[in-house]
């Protein structure tokens, strides 16, 4: 059927009013976007007046502030401060031999040398009559190396692990070993055994080692691990009836007496403590009380940093101690060398 004329859809031009409205809308949108973007570049002065700083203007201003030809810049590297004191060589090679013993210490600038004579395993690195036969670890030249060292003219320090000693504790559980509440040897969190500082056998044993080192010519006995265990099932420890603090004080008193009675009154007796214990004054878990230990020793040692050394020294002095020795690593690649306070 044919279509009626005049009824088909009209596809002519749109009215001019609609075109004008569309143009206005586009301009409004563009203006709104421009306002939003330009907000980032509005800068207000001290009087509250706004001005527009476009990116290329900011770059120009910043460039103008830079010097055209920068001058020379001095780079200063601040060296860490260390307390004035003696330089001590810590020898960790055990046992000491003619090959490992340093020669010419006085000419090398070292004022003292420390040697490990007994470690935490219970091994003793010299010919000892007090130690168990199996604990002795020496070489053919150890005796001569030690004699040369103690006769070198520098201050010599014998480093002895005190109460952490599985060999000696197991060899005499009743007379020396730290026991658990069941009456057997106590094992700490590292499966190691300790000596009981309250037992006479412990005090005699450690005292004999200290006297033997003094007899070898050492000027100072430095004790480490002078405490009760701090890891493991601590509630299972059979602690001394006299108390932890009193038993440790009694041990140090006995060691000083052993040295004096053997004729070594001039040999120093020192203890190494954790830096945190010195700062807080005590470690109840370990049984350490600085005010009780410091007066019984000639020196208190601690591994620390130079910035903390004075604070530690003040704490030791306040607790009645004579001298604090900060053990400071002198060079990152040298784990044996420390700077310590002079005697």
Structural write-up:
- With 343 residues, this protein is of the alpha/beta class.
- The protein folds into two domains: 16-65, no CATH class; 86-340, Glycosidases (TIM Barrel), CATH 3.20.20.
- Helices cover 32% and strands 17% of the residues.
- It contains ten helices and twelve strands.
- It has helices spanning 16-38, 55-65, 105-108, 142-150, 166-171, 200-215, 244-261, 275-280, 290-293, 306-318, and strands at 42-44, 50-52, 86-91, 112-118, 155-161, 220-224, 268-272, 282-283, 288-289, 299-303, 324-331, 334-340.
- The strands form three sheets. The protein has an eight-stranded mixed barrel.
- A hairpin with a 2-residue loop joins strand 11 and strand 12 (334-340).
- Helix 6 (200-215) packs parallel to helix 7 (244-261).
- The protein is elongated, with a radius of gyration of 39 Å.
- The termini are far apart.
- Mean pLDDT is 82; it is low at 1-12 and 59-82.
